[in-house]
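Format notes (please read before filing issues)

Several people have asked whether sequences and structure tokens are stored in separate files. They are not. Every record keeps both together, in the order shown below: the sequence lines, then the token lines. Line labels are part of the format and must not be stripped during preprocessing.
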Amino acid sequence: MITVDGPGGSGKGTVSRLLAQKLEWHLLDSGVLYRLTALAAFRKGIELNNESALAVLARDLDVSFSASQEGKPIILLYGEDVSRDVRSEICGESASKVAALQSVREALLQKQRDFRVFPGLVADGRDMGTAVFPDAPLKIFLTASLQERALRRHEQLKAQGVNANLSSLLHDLSERDARDVRRAVSPLRPADDAVEIDSSELDITAVLDRILRLAIDRNIV
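Then the structure lines:
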């Protein structure tokens, strides 16, 4: 069990995916569950301030994860491929608001814990090491400067064929950081026993190698 927490754009999603592939473990992208809840709410006409309805929606969410022949993740919501829609910036902003609701987090808690099966799990999120898997033997808190994270997100969106304004991304990431850190329920913070890694000047390979060394040193792998 390895948890990888951190703010948006820190590289935790890419690192977690590569780590899971390297170890041949399962992968939990917890942020996708909140994004899917927000997307489902939008499609069903449920307002993001309707906490009770969102909690029911989250509890009964019909989702499945698979991969294409090329290894790209496929996310199905009620049987529909929403892999692209769920990664939009609007969906991410909505997910941040949904994730601040205690009843929604409680509804998704067991769904997340159910991913912890043999041979192992890499869990990517914002409260994996603090709230969802507090007993994980290795907890990583991955971060980077705001400017670097905005640049990474900008390049990611360009690669997906999505037009994005860098200054707007900086503003949106800053607002989301503040919301994630200040929320009353499971705020974004490193676990007391987490290893903090600043990836501002590190590439993905360097970060991955450091985590693997930590896992080996702790006899996790």
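For reference, the curators noted about this record: The CA atoms of residues 215 and 221 lie 6 Å apart. The mean pLDDT is 92.
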